[in-house]
Amino acid sequence: MQSIHTLLRQCFFVVATIGLVSLAGCDDEDPPLADNVVQFDAAELGFGADEDDLTVNISLSRTATEDTNITLATELVGVTYDEEFITEPAMTGNTLVVPVSKGSDVASFIIRKKEGVLLDGDEQVSFAISNAGSLVAGSKTTLVVSFSEIVAAEGVVNPNVGGQLQPNKVFIDLSANRQVSFNRGDWDLGFYTVGDEFRVIVNSSSSMMVRPTEKNDMNAVTEADTVGWGAQLSTDGVFAAMISGTPPAWLPDAIDWIDDPSGDMSKTAIAEISDNADDNKVYIINRGKNPDGNERGWKKVRVLRNGNNYTLQHADINATTFTTVEVTRNDSYYFNYVKFETGAVTIEPEKNKWDIAFTVFTNTTSLGGGITVPYVFNDIVIQNRYKVETAEVLIADVGAYADFEAAGLDGVIFSQNQVNIGPNWRSGGGPSSSPALRSDRFYLVKDPDGNIYKLQFTALTQGGERGRPQFEFALVQAAE
């Protein structure tokens, strides 16, 4: 445990040092902010075979300080506006004005195919930023949208994680060269849709933790069943126990209160849902924290099977009634999600339409002595559990990223571990050290269709702000 105490002292030293530097560097005027740069997320996009709508994102390097507009000039090839397609907001002539709201770091518009229109697939619309308003245009100022599916050959991606607090979970589809993000606090439970297993996951990006009671009656569970849990069933409580000198007797059990970070569905914190209702216990859930650090509160929950679907019961811990949510499996998605306040929510793309995601994540760390505990990491990259495989390759073993080609795939061992990339693309970042980009490695990603991409991280921060990563990718081998 000596190393943990050393870590804590280093943490206090860093905080104190930062405070001294801040005081010493105070001036009457704050330094001017860097330009707020605006650019397209991708240089090319395409409609999927089953898509009639396509959302186009334009990202800002930080949140906008005022309402403004981005003006796009358009060029059409093989299509006519309002005959084959429309946009939201609407185009005026060959111009599209996209509003940017104060406090937002992304602007978007929709391209929608007109109903009943047949297209050959070679039609395109090009967009170019002609006026960025109060913002500054970046390097990716043009976008070509094809009315057919693409397999991107290469790209540079700035995942819209959202800055220092990293509020967004960002899903990346490499072959489509697109990203989509959701607030990572907008769900509580995910219900597994694959095969005949009935499993439930908890929100690892909000540091949720869950612990079973011995009861199977929701109304019979009260605060009396959770005595002492307030100091245990939280990642803050685990950290406090880590640095307490002598690990408390309960600490080794904490690893069972989170889902296995690898994504192994046989190791969920909530036991497999039994077809015998009496076997399904009531669980106590600490919902963790929202991205702003506010506590999300505690709940008691019980999950039952309902034919091929799920029934969720949830309530506040002392409540004598509960809310019931029927969860119908939709196997277009790997999980179907529920938020306690609102019921069913969409939190990720369809299972075959994303490869990797950037998020805050409840991983694990080792204390030594055979004790492994939950620990929250920023800057985590997870992979889709549906058919996606990844491999880490060291430049010392395979040569430079730029030179890597399909011939180098021989002997590469791919992994389905959800955190195979995880935090390994950067170093540091704990209480005692600043994070730094690792330049000695890159990654291979095999997508659900079998395309293999190489991927190299090129930024951990931008404009001095954490939560602004960047990576580049290139197709190594197309699916057969």
Helix content estimate? under 10%
- Radius of gyration using CA atoms only: 24 Å
Counting DSSP E segments of at least 2 residues, the number of strands comes to 30
**SS field, number of helical segments:** 3
Unreliable residue stretches? 1-28
Measured by DSSP, the beta-strand proportion falls in 35-45%
Tell me, rounded to a whole number, the average pLDDT: 91
Question: Strand count, sense and closure of the main sheet?
Answer: 5 strands, mixed
Gross morphology is globular
| Span of the ends, CA to CA | 52 Å
- Tell me the strand order in the biggest sheet: 5-7-3-1-9
- SSE class: mainly beta
Fold topology:
Blueprint: H1 2-24, E1 37-40, E2 44-46, E3 53-60, E4 68-77, E5 85-88, E6 95-100, E7 106-113, E8 124-131, E9 136-137, E10 142-146, E11 154-157, E12 168-173, E13 178-183, E14 189-192, E15 200-202, E16 209-212, H2 235-242, E17 283-286, E18 298-306, E19 309-315, E20 323-327, E21 335-339, E22 343-345, E23 356-368, E24 371-383, E25 389-394, H3 395-398, E26 426-427, E27 436-437, E28 441-446, E29 452-462, E30 465-477
Parallel strand pairs: 1-9, 2-10
Antiparallel strand pairs: 1-3, 3-7, 4-6, 4-8, 5-7, 8-10, 11-30, 12-13, 12-23, 14-15, 14-21, 16-17, 17-18, 18-19, 19-20, 21-22, 23-24, 25-28, 26-27, 28-29, 29-30
